[in-house]
Amino acid sequence: MAETDLVQLVDEHGITTGETQVGAAHAAPGLLHRAFSVVVVDDAGRMLLQQRADVKLRFPGLWTNSCCGHPAPGADLLASAARRVHEELGVELVDAREAGTFRYRALDAGSGHVETEYDHVVVGRARGDLRPDAQEVGATRWVAAEEAHALVDAGVTTPWFVDVLAVVAPRAAPGA
Does residue 1 lie in a domain region? Predict the structure, then answer.
């Protein structure tokens, strides 16, 4: 998405309240807006992670879920997620479903941009061979939930990825 593309502003319950440009939504102090985080899984239950390209405006170089984006005002969530997966990863998103939502706010100290998002977690499978867009994706890898949690613990993931994991692969309670 370009910084001038439109995103949906929402209230704390995810109800649309208006729209603004991507750049304005991410300018400090940040405006709460709708986003999605896609987790592509394989038959073994592994998740496809991506390392954000170093040229990304927000949180470059960090590991995160398969793909992220914002549905345009009035756009269908799952169709928007599928389109973005194709643009970033070069594959078709199939069997997609919404797994949950969360809200978060995170400052990117490097850029001064702020993520303030009502995030829909979408889970699906990939059809086709990965062909990541180098302007979006620095690297990809398939990981089990334990490895994804280890990356969070190592501090090399985006701030929202911990919330994505809480939806798709929560940690077992101690002693469980």
Answer: no
| Residues spanned by the domain of 130 | 6-168
Query: What's the predicted TM-score (pTM) here?
Result: 0.94
Q: What is the CATH classification number for the domain harbouring 77?
A: 3.90.79.10
What's the domain count of the chain?
1
Which residue is catalytic, options 67, 88, 115, 117?
A: 117
Q: What is the mean pLDDT of residues 45-68?
A: 95
CB-CB contact of 162 with 154 (8 Å): no
Strand partners, 137: 52
DSSP-derived 3-state class of residue 66: coil
How confident is the model at residue 62, as a pLDDT?
96
Active site residue 92: no
3-class SS shares of the chain: helix, strand, coil, % to 5 = 20, 40, 40
Q: Which of 68, 88, 98, 147 is catalytic?
A: 68
68 is catalytic: yes
